[in-house]
Amino acid sequence: MGGQATFWFELASTYSYLSAARVDDLAAQRGIEVAWRPFLLGPIFAAQGWSTSPFRLQPAKGRYMWRDMARLTAARGLPFTVPDGPAMDLFPQHSVLAARLALVGLAEGWGKAFVRAVFEAGFAQWQDIAAPATLAPLIRRVGGEPEMALTAAVAPEIKQALRANTEAAQAAGIFGAPSVTVGEELFWGDDRLEAALNLAAER
Amino acid sequence: MGGQATFWFELASTYSYLSAARVDDLAAQRGIEVAWRPFLLGPIFAAQGWSTSPFRLQPAKGRYMWRDMARLTAARGLPFTVPDGPAMDLFPQHSVLAARLALVGLAEGWGKAFVRAVFEAGFAQWQDIAAPATLAPLIRRVGGEPEMALTAAVAPEIKQALRANTEAAQAAGIFGAPSVTVGEELFWGDDRLEAALNLAAER
Q1: Which end of chain B has fewer CB atoms at under 10 Å, N or C?
Q2: pLDDT tens across A29-87, in order?
Q3: DSSP-assigned letter for residue B90
Q4: Mind spelling out the 3-state secondary structure of chain A?
């Protein structure tokens, strides 16, 4: 039956997009289950004194990331656009509302499709994922009811659930996204996805 | 006959150890040539305001790196020791002298074996790789003449060659080690080694 892995993702994280697109297929190949947990990198970055994404703070690393993502998405057939002009101002995207909606959707069964749709809207079309006007059509497309979901997303229990996820991520030693935990073992980055799921399958 | 790739490494970089151990085998499988260029991350980190390794500046990332390295070296059969106690004070190792010696050795034909020996001394035995007493036996073991090499390593032209490598790395957009360049294309990290060499082989 295989073991259990937890997939920690951030909707403003480009590399999380890569993993969200393939983690369930890789898990199914190994006969294991993966729990999806959205969290926010902002508070984790802030705790180490960073005001924004390291890809903004380190321009050379930022330039490299776009090129790396362009190569990887092309190789995997994923829609992606390197931002330019006004789109560049959208990076990093503000992901709080989308992450709360992901929690609503994961409980209602449309969360994973919603997450993948948000990544594509954010990183291929460069729509503003903080805007309800961006998110409502995505919710509808994946089978949710936009007005109810947007109301549920700002309820205290959902806000608290996202804070709890972020605190749990930090407590697990997570410092970036995506990450996968398998028991006490932490794996960081889309590059470690196979290794993480292989370990889960062995357990 | 295949293309040309340049392997940029830093003797204080744990992930550079992984790539130095396998880059020539991977290149041979693809029928390509790889030029080895040591450089220093210190000046590149300093230029972005960092006083030491990001693995020191970000403790959670540092803890993760040791676990990740332990898993990877175990899987690949490479000697490695997670530092503890006094060995921890040796991280990051001071690599200037070893990098200069690598330049001497690469010109004399014993450079690659020396580099691999330095990585093992530094990251498995936690010897001080800034100490001539550590480096002299390694030079001898790989076929160099320690006294002559240590004298050559501090000659102006070798000092300048290392500075030039570091400046060339920075100009190529390099922000971490190991990195591989194939023409204008930059690949960062041991995780991108295959992709980089595949591209070189296509050219």
Answers
A1: N
A2: 999 999 999 999 999 999 988 999 999 999 999 999 999 999 999 999 999 999 998 88
A3: G
A4: CCCEEEEEECCCCHHHHHHHCCHHHHHHHHCCEEEEEECCHHHHHHHCCCCCCHHHHCHHHHHHHHHHHHHHHHHHCCCCCCCCHHHHHHCCCCCHHHHHHHHHHHHHCCHHHHHHHHHHHHHCCCCCCCCHHHHHHHHHHCCCCHHHHHHHHCCHHHHHHHHHHHHHHHHCCCCCCCEEEECCEEEECHHHHHHHHHHHHHC
Does the beta carbon of B51 lie under 8 angstroms from any beta carbon of chain A?
no
Nearest to A76 by CA among A8, A36, A22, A24: A22
Question: What is the complex's ipTM, to 2 decimals?
Answer: 0.95
- What's the predicted TM-score (pTM) here? 0.96
Which residue among B60, B176, B187 places its CB closest to the CB of A175?
B60
Closest CA to A8 of A166, A194, A198, A203: A166
Looking at beta carbons, which residues of chain A come within 8 Å of B67?
Answer: 185-186
